[in-house]
Amino acid sequence: MTFLEEVKRRRTFAIISHPDAGKTTLTEKLLLYGGAIHLAGSVKSRKTQKYAVSDWMEIEKQRGISVTSSVLQFDYDGCRVNILDTPGHQDFSEDTYRTLMAADSAVMLIDVAKGVEAQTKKLFAVCKERGIPIFTFVNKIDHFGRNPFDLMEEIENSLGIRAVPMNWPVGINGEYQGIYDRETHTVDLFAKDETHGQQKLASTKESVDDPAFRELLGDEVHQSLIDDIELLDVAGDEFDFDRVRAGELTPMFFGSAMTNFGVKPFLEKFLDLAPSPAPRQALEKTVDASSEDFSAFVFKIQANMNPNHHDRIVFMRICSGKFEKGMSVLHRQSGKTIRLAQPQQFLATERTIIDEAYPGDIIGVFDAGTMGVGDTLCAANHKVTFGDFPVFPPEFFARVSPKDTMKRKQFQKGMTQLAQEGAVQIFEQPHSLDSFIVGAVGMLQFEVLQYRLRNEYGVEPITDSLPYSVARWVKGNVDIKQLKGLDNAMAVKDNRGRTVILISNEWQMGWVIERNPDVTFLETPPLN
Ligand code: GDP
To answer: Which CATH class is domain 281-378?
Structure first.
């Protein structure tokens, strides 16, 4: 296969959903159809739903599993499919946002009975902002749920995107018997599932006009299907990939991951429609996936997966060029040349050393601490730099210091590495060497930080909450001493030495902004 053919057959996507919509189940079923596992259920559920640190520790115990499933890869119909795994817990949504940076498309999973939920909305917004095409899978249609037309309307009203059904459930709500394919005008009737979804579901395809089929469904159900289709044809949107790409339209599918109902039709159509690796904007130029010069960016880091070895794995998404084992690349941020030895690929059940990989693929390499999230790697003669990752404004702050000052070194190392991983954001207060100011998006992040400092770095931390909830980056070179109205605020530096003001609430911040009309305050760090 040529390099271009390899690029064209890649499909790299993430599934976004509210917890419990069925993401784990659907992922398993896609693997089942992809032949990556023979009996669904062998991929252990690794999600956590309750808001407690014990859940995180549970993940920690099972890290082998959560790590091996950073990306799930299989071949189907000539496509090389990469499913990016995202954590289920809300408090790790920052992780999910970063993972979305590595996706070329997203599948938005919706529970037929619950419709668009809070977490779905947030993740949808990130995809839309990044221009990632979104496909919709309405799950759990084996249950009674909302009417499909109502769901289309809800998607439009709450997400501002029109839905174009690619297929349509056939039968009575709660007892659907099959899926109508709008392109081929055929119905996939599903055989009763005797295995509770453990094996692929048999189905028979019929033309919707077949009299035998009409008899099978009964006149009433058949007529209501014909009416629905007519309404969609007349009043619905036409499929238009440019509109999908522009975030105006989402192709919509129906099914039930648990019973396998509609999973195969979805997979096949999705792979047909989903984009292959898209061009990426670098600071210097647009990088085309078909370019043979290597480039990649780091979107995730996991340190200490094996606490005895203090290993650190950096996950990168390849944007252009072919990756070959042992190749040397330039790390843009440090200017160092790095040899990508022992590249790992993380498949459903095992990690394997890989020899080559292509744009769209994800590889993990060991790194001693040079690389951080968002960093670029590229061929030495093809210098590009992908922009900084978006940083989410922290809302919780604490001062963290080591209980035992003799352990200052381990403490600093731990804090720096965990910040590089993106577990928390760290700030430094001038003249205070023994402590860091830590910012988090959710409280659970502090607990995880404490747990990891203790267990992975052997440092007992002291954490004092700070009464701030708002952070603002100061644009440009401004002398802090000249700023007015900071009596109840704290000025700190972020990891790049940029000044950040921490203050108790928006109202107080408004007051500071008013008193310093010549200064610009930003909600997120200025991108480079
Ligand atoms: P996640 O939190 O999004 O990963 O959700 P899971 O895949 O763990 O599913 C949450 C619950 O919904 C589990 O109890 C699943 O068995 C159930 N579930 C998933 N898919 C379906 C489906 O198609 N139909 C029904 N009835 N239940 C489902």
So the answer is: mainly beta
